[in-house]
Structures are given as structure tokens and as C-alpha cells.
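Ticket #4471: structure export looks truncated?
Reporter: QA, pipeline team
Priority: medium

Steps to reproduce: submit the single chain below to the structure queue and open the exported record.
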Amino acid sequence: MQTMPHAYRRSALALIAMCLVLTACGPVRPDAEDREGLAATATQLESAGSYAEAAGQWRKLAEAASGSARNAALQNAARNFYLAGRFAQARSLLAEVPVPSGTEAASAYLLLRARLAVATGDGEDALESLSLLPEDADLETRLQALEVKSDANLALGKAGPAIVALVQQEALLEDPGAIRDNQRRIWNRLQEAAAADADFSIPADADPVARGWLQLGALLEAYGRNPFQLQASLLDWRARNAGHPASGEVLETALATYRDLNEYPRRVALLLPLSGRLAASAAAVRDGFIAAYYQQTEQRPGVRIYDTDRLGAAGAWEQAAAEGADFIVGPLAKDEIETLRTVSGGVPTLALNEVPQGDTLPPYVYQFALSPEDEAAQAARRALADGFGQAVALVPGNDWGMRIAASFGESLQASGGRLLGIATYTPGAADFSDPIRALLLVDESAQRHRQLEGLLGMNLEFEPRRRADADFVFVAAQPGDGRQIPPQLKFHYGAGLPVYATSAIYAPDEGPNRDLDGVRFDDMPWVVGAETDVVTLRSRLATVWPSSSGRRARLYALGFDAYRLVPILRNDRGLLDQGVPGLTGVLRLEQEQRIHRQLEWAAIVNGQMRVLSRSPDPG
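Actual output as written to the record:
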């Protein structure tokens, strides 16, 4: 065995001595005045809505305090991280705090713990926390507890006890306005539960009011994405439940909504490139549009289809307007949409793609796209909600990859996370080792090993290591590359890193996906949804419309939802404020007349797709 040279040994001993001195000194704790300053800054930041920054100040104060003061600061930090949407981080901090004494303090702590459990998908822990609430808690605490209990049961997929809790909450209310608000809340919860395919079994302790609400929820679950059939079912329910609280204002508002969903203009034009390079994609959109048309049993509009390859996008639009179209859907390609700036007239138009952010279109043009940038932004927010804030990204070195990387990084950093590094790869390559090793800094580990051997003048045992600062990997890839990348990530020491991706990585009905094991990705309900109405519709349409499944299934869903959006955009755009469930996602209208899709989440487990719980998406 070689010995360490004398000069190196002397330097090493000096370094060790310095470390010991620094360790002995320890951190310098702020004095009382500094701690007051930290608390004041944290309070100001919280008042300004800067919750993540406020949480950071409270955490600094906790590090400088001890005993009950430390616990109070940690609880404040957790509360602010909760308000900032960083639920896993908040829950981890609160776990360091014991339940405080006193009814008021214990109630605040346990309600926060229950809310954080719900936000991170742990309904059982939320219910356990609520069971510990003091029996002498005040009315406001009991009201909040029943609402959280409802949320916890919904997180467990149990609509029955969730609605029972809200009915119990209403029994404690006296103000008529508060009662009406609670009834609207129950209706909203029913819609959420139906969209999540919750269990609407009626609990034994449900009173007649709760039973009636749950029967309504079962109708929403069965027909939620078929407004034509749902409207008739709601009218039948009202006839059988005339004295139920929901039979008045709540149901009348809902029926007015579904009337707007069903009232189409007389003539609708569909503009698609049916004879050029995008013909197959356009045909899938057309099939979805016509399939939705045939789902409508009465008062169908007249539909005429125009080929933008033959007429040009602007020419097709102007011809449709001249021939009396009351609403125009299309065109499909990005460059076609750009030409809408040149048309004259005011016919409402739903373009099936989008222009870059900040580019303007006429005010009567809406944009509805299967945007990969939006999917990447949602992936960033999902990872943060799951407790991962430090990312590295692997994307193809082309325009598509750069746009996705930019959107992912902006969303991650805007929500309080960090993008530590990006590596690009060549699409279609058989070996992704070089960009993966560069991304995970494996080569730097080997270089440090060589430098240390040279410094010490001896051979050292060595096992390459990846970087330790990354929490997860974001991957942008098409299915072929996507199946190659995860195994190579594991081979190059990335086995412990969660992998997040967009829908592009997953190809339904194209063979096994075992190489994607562990990958989490966002996608539309039509592809990964397990809701009863989606499964039923998917099964029924698969034999009639081949384009409804397989490689172009997402475009088929785009066409289907485009048809459903026509009456909403024409009659009552406000319906989109709360979100309308569609096959491509929960649809909302945002700035610049863009339709935003809130997606489902899935993971590959043992080669099979498994649906994950839906997380909050503030974007």
C-alpha cells in the first residue's frame, strides 16, 4: 500500500484542523432583535401574498429558536408553504411539530395537518387528524372540519361520506346565503367526484337529503360528458324529488347550463387540411367532430366541411362565412391560423391550434390546441406538488424539445422550484449515454476521482456517482426514444430519480411499455381516463371510428371536444370559468382566448398504465 506524501499529509491535517475549529464554533444564532425582524418580514410577505418567501423566513426563525417558539415558527412555515401550493414540503415541516396544547391551538394545527394530508393524497391520515380535534372546538372549527372531511373522503374516492359531511355541515348553518353557498358546494363536489369516477354508494347513515344528492351524482358520473342525455336525466330526477333542496335554484342553474351546452347555431363550418401532408391527422379530427355530432339526438346544426389544402385557410374561412356559417371550427395547422389575421368579418372561430404567446389574432378567434408546452408546464407543477423541486431535463435537440424545455423551466421556477441543468439528445439515436452522463454529472464524478488519485499519488477504489442535488428528471420524448431513455437513466446511476414526462412518451395500443416502468406522465382522459362515461364511450366508438384509438386518438378527442365547445363559446363562455369536462381534459378559457386543458396523470407500473390521483393545477 502506498503512503501519503509528507507535504500532502501536512496539508490534509491542516484542513481537518480547520474543519474541527469551524464545527466547534457552530452557527451564530440571531439575537432577539434579529428574530423579531425575521418575524416581521415573514408577516409582511404573507400579507402581500408571497407565501413561499414568507415560509422561508419562518423557517429561518425556527432554526434560530427553540421550544414552543420553534414549533410555532415551523407551523407558520408549513401554513405558508401550503398556501403556496408546496404541499409535500409543508407536510414534512409540520411533521416536526407536536400537537400543541389548548383547544384553539390544537384545532388550528390539526386542521392544517388534515388539509395537507388531503393535498398530498393521503385521505386516511386526514380523517385520523380530524378525529383528534378537541370535542369543545368552536362552531367555525367544526364547520371547517366537516368540509375537510368531505375533501378527505373525495380523495379516497368515497363520494357517499363526502356528501354526507357537507349535508351535516348545512345543518349547522343558519344564514340563508351560507346555506345556498353550501348547496352549490355540494353540486360542485358531485361534479368533481363524478369526473374522478368516485364511488357513489349510499352510506347507511345517509338521510333522505344526502341520498337525493348522491342519486344526482350517479347521474353526473354516468352522463357527465354527454350533456344531451344528462339534461333529460336531471329533469326526470327533479320530477321524482320535488321537495329536495337541489330541486330549486341548484338544479335550475344546472339545467340552464345544459341548455346552453345543447343549443347549437344553425350552420357550423369545419376547416381542415384533408388532402395534403396532414390529411391523416385532419381525418382523425374530422371523425371525432362528426362522432360528437351523432351523439346529439336532436336540434343538430348543419355542418359543412372545407378543405384548406385546396382552398387555402383564409380562402376556406371567407367562403364559409360567405355561405352563412354561424360558427367556424378550424383551421388545424399553425401556419394556417396565422392567415386568419387577414380575413374580414366577425364569425366566431375556434382554431384547432395556437400561435405563440403574445401574438394577436382577431377577437372572435379562440385557440384550442394539444399544446406540448402546456403539458410540460403541468408536469413541473405536478412534480412540485409531489414534493420534488430540483429538476434536470433531457430533451431532443430540436425546436420541439427547446420549446418544451423552456415551458417546463419557466413553470418550475415560477412555482418555486429550480431547473439545475438541461441535456439534449439526437432523436432516433440508439445510445443516449453521453447526454445522460452529462446531465447526471457522472463524468465529473470520474474526473474528480482521477484528480484525487493524482493528488494523493495512489490508486483508490471508485464507484461512479450521479449528482446529488437533483430530485427528479423531466424527459421530453416520442414513444420510440421514450422507451430507450428510462433504462439507460437507471444504468447510469439514475435509478432513484423519479421521471416525469408529457403525453408524447406514451403510445396507447402499441405494445408493452415495461421499459417505461415508473415514468409519470400527463395525458387526456380519452387516453388514460378511468371514468365510467369515458370508458363506456371509448368502448362504444372504437368499433365505429377506428381513429378513436391508437396513434391518432388524441386528435380524435380534439375534434370531439371542438364540437362540444361550439355552443359554450357562442352562448355562455362563463361556463368555462369553473371548467367543463371534456375528452381532452377539463377545459377552461384563459387569456388571449386560449382554451386550457387540465390533464389526468398516469404512471407505468409493470408495463401497464395506471391512473394516478389528480393533483391541484393552479396554472
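Status: closed, not a bug. The export was complete when the record was re-opened. Leaving a note from the reviewer for reference: DSSP finds 25 helices and 15 strands in the chain.
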